[in-house]
Amino acid sequence: MRLKGKVAIITGAAAGIGRASAVLFAQEGAGIAAVDLDREGNEALASEILKAGGRAVAIAGDVSQAADVQRIVRQTREHFRTLDILFNNAGIVMKGKIHETTEEEWDRTAAINVKSMYLLCHEVVPIFLEQGSGVILNTSSATALRSVADRVAYSTSKGAVLALTRSMALDYAKNSIRVNCLCPGTIDTPSLGRRLSAFADPAEARRQFIARQPMGRLGTADEVAQAALYLVSDEAAFVTGTALSIDGGSAI
Ligand SMILES: NC(=O)c1ccc[n+]([C@@H]2O[C@H](COP(=O)([O-])OP(=O)(O)OC[C@H]3O[C@@H](n4cnc5c(N)ncnc54)[C@H](O)[C@@H]3O)[C@@H](O)[C@H]2O)c1
After folding, report:
1. In degrees, to the nearest 5, what angle opens at C-alpha 187 toward C-alphas 186 and 188?
2. Residues 59 and 152 in one domain
3. Same structural domain for residues 213 and 232?
4. How many A from CA of 57 to the centre of ligand 1?
5. What pLDDT, in 10s, does the model give residues 230-246?
6. Whose CA is nearest to atom 16 of ligand 1?
């Protein structure tokens, strides 16, 4: 019970890394405010946690919209009364080189992958400052640390998440607010499934993705959730401003 009595907002909780983290954090004792655009998937996740004896509330919303974010934080506090952890995980992948990327695609990627973190942190940090504690975890990506072809808007947004994490970690280091980020490599989630299905031969594309991996396999959402658990737990009390790679050695 490494998160006993804690309350966590997790965005992008209905699928992939967010879902695995919500289930794991709940098993470790946290109350989960599960946030996602996908109302049905989010409610299914919350029911699963409740059935297993955990604490959860499903809150549907778009994290790139200020009014939704204000409501998400308000509903979380009305439901649980407290708030200890913010896991900014919702994100989208945008394919394309810069000359192929439309302004709308660029803005949407920035809004969902980066502005959402500004909006949530803007609401949550005053709460953490008042209580004198809090933990923020952001999902960046391996693409923030090294070049990946054909992902310019996505890579730029994830680089911004890394810079946001480091800036905030320094700004609040003396306030007992820790801010870290995850840099996952290629993780087998519904998002990856959608990327593969865009290829003419998705099974062959999957084989090629796997062939590029030093460990000869993709990562799992559960493996990323374990890293997330460490960073939000008290075991990481002296860890702030860090970017933790969970990439099976792809950066080597
Ligand atoms: N899967 C990978 O290989 C990989 C690698 C590196 C980083 N990441 C990052 O990890 C995070 C999670 O990725 P995943 O693979 O689990 O993705 P996923 O698509 O499987 O799940 C993401 C969830 O976020 C939700 N979401 C999307 N936009 C939203 C919005 N505006 N408001 C609220 N919810 C929204 C979706 O509905 C979905 O349930 C993302 O930030 C992604 O960029 C993933």
Report:
1. 125
2. yes
3. no
4. 19
5. 999 999 999 999 999 99
6. 16
